[in-house]
Amino acid sequence: MRSGLSVPPAVPPSSAAPPASHPSGSESSPLGPGVPPYSLHKPCTSAGVGFAIPSSTVLKIVPQLIQFGKVFQAGLNVDIAPDLIANQLNVRYGALVLQVPGNSLAAKAGLLPTTRGFAGKIILGDIIVAVDNLPVKNKAELYKALDDYNVGDQVTLKIQRGSENLELPVTLEEKSS
């Protein structure tokens, strides 16, 4: 199990306890020292939504945010078919490559896109089934596998191309948004 940073849901004012009094007479916060206490006099709203971020993600992105003001995510910069489409094309395992930009590092490594052949027949592109021996069952697992890498890292993609199983070394580039 991954460790994580957990953020409790916001507490609506109607359920907030009144501020506790410190023996010195000052108000203390139910959230701890240094955090302003809830105010029953100020109107505020809350959707009551909380979230958790894995600590490994925090440790990776916070230094980038501090240094550059943005996060650099490593990726292949190819279009991957949504699982529903891949399934309709009888791709039951792996991530089906739809498009590969000609100037991308993935194209230079030899990754092939899905195309249309004679009379409009669909010719499947490469199907990514593993990243550095980590199995990839679908699009989400591909993205999850790539999260552990940085821009410029080289990975070995195990792909299925027709009836062939191949390994392609690919250098990851900054993921376009």
Query: Mind telling me which CATH architecture of the largest domain this is?
Result: Roll
CATH topology of the largest domain: Pdz3 Domain
What is the approximate shape? globular
Relevant CATH superfamily of the largest domain = PDZ domain
Encode the helix/strand succession as letters: EEEEHEEHEHEEEEHEEE
Strand content: 25-35%
Indicate the structural class.
alpha+beta
Number of helices: 4
> At the first level of CATH, what is the class of the largest domain?
Mainly Beta
- The Cα radius of gyration reads 24 Å
The largest sheet, given as strand count, sense and whether it forms a barrel, is: 6 strands, antiparallel
The overall pLDDT average reads: 82
- Name the helicity range: 10-25%
Task: Tell me the distance between the termini.
Answer: 29 Å
Low-confidence parts lasting 5 or more residues at pLDDT below 50?
none
Beta strands, count: 14
Protein name: Protease Do-like 8
Keywords: Hydrolase, Protease
GO molecular function: peptidase activity
Structural descriptors:
single chain; 177 residues; alpha+beta; Pdz3 Domain; 2 domains; six-stranded antiparallel β-sheet; two-stranded antiparallel sheet; 28% strand; globular
